[in-house]
Write a structure and sequence with these properties.
about 270 residues, alpha/beta, seven-stranded mixed β-sheet, globular
């Protein structure tokens, strides 16, 4: 039996809602999303441990506990005073809060999430952190509710791999970015040698493994969407042939509308 795109999206939404509720109750990230390490490695590959202690210390504890990412995109996005930043799949708000502080009072940080529970948690976290230049929006990353050419930087932390339509996500990133705008994304990326079926064998879709693009697919997809200066740098292994990675690119003057084939959802038995 296969899982449809709508079923996969609902499973992701439900698991991340469970994570937000678990954090609200004083626990860790619960059973949802990229909690813990599916591969069983001894070194941390997901979550709060990927942020510097100094960064964690200046954030509300619930923002830290809700971190389900595979990297630290704010550390590589080179944010500047006065810029407008968009975080795709903002979760508990950790990267939005850090971004809002980096761009300062003349800048703006948007967070986009489809989960009501995460949005409520993120707004409370931003208020507790004293951040006033953060705005959290409800929506899906395949249809960003912002005007074209309205953002300087797009960041994301282990969320693109969860999308059921990754070409749409890449096209939307290009649409909302201003000419010359850039992306700084942390994501799980597969080695080119692994077929989608082999990725699914290494972990679930909601666990940030089965839905990952390969390095070559990422590069081709970004270039098709109109990005240049594309780089995909592996940072740490999360499963055999699967890596946490930093993805960077710059939007050209005229984003393309070319679409790559949508990857088929993994079989339900893999999730």
């Amino acid at each position: 039996m296969t899982t449809t795109a709508d079923e996969l999206r609902e499973e992701v939404r439900r698991r991340y809602a469970e994570s937000a509720v678990a954090v609200d109750r004083g626990g860790g990230c619960g059973s949802g999303g990229c909690c813990g390490d599916e591969a069983g490695a001894s070194a941390p590959v997901f979550g709060e441990a990927l942020y510097e202690a100094e960064q964690r210390g200046e954030l509300p504890q619930t923002a830290v506990l809700a971190s389900l990412g595979c990297g630290n995109p704010t550390a590589v996005a080179e944010l500047r005073e006065g810029e407008t930043v968009l975080d795709l799949g903002s979760g508990g708000g950790i990267d939005v809060i850090l971004s809002a502080r980096r761009v300062g009072p003349t800048g703006l940080a948007f967070g986009l999430d489809m989960t009501d529970e995460m949005l409520a948690l993120a707004r409370r976290n931003a208020e507790e952190a004293g951040v006033t230049n953060a705005i959290f929006l409800k929506g899906v990353i395949e249809q960003v509710p912002l005007p074209a050419e309205s953002v300087d930087v797009v960041i994301s932390n282990c969320v693109v791999n969860l999308s059921v339509d990754k070409p749409a996500v890449l096209t939307e990133m290009a649409r909302v970015l201003k000419p010359g705008g850039r992306i700084g994304i942390s994501d799980v990326v597969a080695e080119d040698r692994l077929a989608p079926e082999e990725r699914a064998q290494r972990g679930s879709h909601v666990g940030c493994i089965a839905g990952a693009l390969s390095r070559g697919e990422y590069v081709a997809g970004l270039e098709a969407a109109g990005f240049g200066d594309v780089s995909v740098e592996f940072t740490h292994e999360v499963a055999d042939g699967m890596h946490g990675a930093i993805v960077k690119a710059t939007r050209g003057s005229h984003p393309q509308r070319t679409r790559l084939p949508v990857l088929q959802p993994a079989a339900a038995g893999c999730c």
